[in-house]
Inverse folding.
């Protein structure tokens, strides 16, 4: 596995190769809580190097993991490009600040030119952030949405006639009191989140007015909002450089990125068993997943599971046609339908409930391929 990190931090357990943790105790420990019993293990006919897991079971879990993780990987790709990789061409500004996308960037992303777009990547580990939204006249379309790392829509603030307000976005571990002056608290299941906003411009002559509204959007840490000292900084992270977009839906490094991101996403109570199945393949929060060192049969199962999942996404998107609103929402709306969530995620961060989504190139369903890694 090539090294794809930039440094801000402690190194990600390179002394315990992931299959590392898995080989020492995780494979045995994880499987203790699983009910998989493969008749192929004894004969070796479908042996993938994990006791009790057949090749077909590994492929099924790989598909599940791909659908589950697709929104996380897509969300992080934008987060890394816009707010982490300071030397990158797409960098806009640091975490926990909101920044305009710029017309060139919006055009490159295929977004609606009638809007100005803003973006913020939120790191909620140390403390919440406070989002200040200006009042907007009724005739102007102004939308702002907050998404967790799963790309659940956890805060959709307005569409037309946004009344303005001051909103607190808190991560899963925050237990503080809501300070005075907060209009609403928005809870994220994950420690990383995303905020995207769009502001309508009526015509080219309205550009300056739209920019003034855009400039009044504000994101700041809670401590800054309260004029108090910042809390202790969270543990530094060595942010992983994501796989290039062209390879995001085919490279096995997807699973390494997923394992990296799981550390920022505490398991929801409804997903405990899914996380255990993922762990049975070695996908554990925060540990490296060196697919190049895996059993070749397991690599093949991962590749096939990835292609199965992507085929399902492509078919689902084609079946939706122009009616895409059902692809977006919170956990209570999507009800752990990972295919639906992944399909919506691949429409892009700036798909406001299906509106203003970048047009995706049409693709024929993928055929399962054998990894050459």
């Amino acid at each position: 596995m090539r090294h794809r990190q930039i440094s801000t931090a402690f190194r990600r357990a390179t002394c315990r190769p992931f299959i590392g943790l898995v080989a020492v105790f995780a494979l045995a420990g994880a499987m203790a809580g699983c009910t998989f019993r493969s008749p192929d293990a004894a004969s070796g006919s479908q042996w993938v190097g994990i006791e009790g897991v057949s090749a077909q079971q590994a492929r099924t879990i790989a598909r599940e993991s791909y659908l589950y993780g697709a929104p996380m990987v897509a969300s992080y790709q934008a987060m890394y490009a816009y707010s982490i990789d300071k030397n990158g061409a797409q960098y806009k500004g640091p975490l926990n600040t909101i920044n305009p996308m710029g017309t060139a960037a919006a055009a490159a992303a295929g977004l609606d030119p009638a809007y100005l777009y803003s973006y913020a990547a939120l790191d909620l580990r140390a403390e919440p952030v406070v989002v200040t939204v200006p009042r907007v006249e009724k005739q102007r379309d102004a939308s702002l949405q907050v998404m967790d790392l799963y790309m659940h829509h956890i805060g959709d603030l307005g569409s037309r006639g946004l009344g303005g307000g001051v909103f607190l976005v808190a991560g899963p571990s925050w237990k503080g009191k809501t300070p005075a002056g907060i209009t609403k608290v928005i809870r994220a299941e994950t420690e990383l989140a995303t905020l995207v906003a769009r502001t309508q411009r009526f015509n080219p002559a309205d550009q300056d007015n739209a920019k003034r509204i855009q400039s009044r959007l504000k994101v700041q840490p809670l401590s800054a909002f309260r004029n108090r000292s910042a809390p202790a900084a969270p543990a530094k992270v060595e942010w992983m450089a994501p796989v290039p977009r062209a390879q995001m839906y085919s490279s096995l490094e997807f699973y390494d990125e997923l394992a990296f991101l799981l550390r920022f996403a505490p398991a929801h109570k409804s997903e405990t068993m899914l996380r255990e199945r993922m762990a049975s393949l070695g996908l554990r929060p925060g540990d490296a997943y060196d697919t190049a060192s895996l059993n070749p049969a397991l690599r093949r199962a991962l590749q096939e599971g990835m292609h199965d999942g992507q085929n399902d996404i492509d078919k689902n998107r084609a079946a939706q046609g122009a009616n895409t609103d059902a692809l977006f929402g919170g956990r209570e709306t999507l009800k752990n339908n990972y295919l639906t969530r992944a399909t919506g995620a691949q429409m892009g961060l700036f798909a406001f409930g299906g509106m203003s989504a970048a047009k995706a190139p049409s693709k024929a369903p993928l055929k399962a391929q054998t990894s050459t890694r």
Q: What stands out?
A: Strands lie at 99-100, 115-123, 129-133, 142-148, 153-157, 165-170, 184-187, 192-200, 218-221. Residues 1-45, 353-373 have pLDDT under 50 and may be disordered. The radius of gyration is 21 Å.
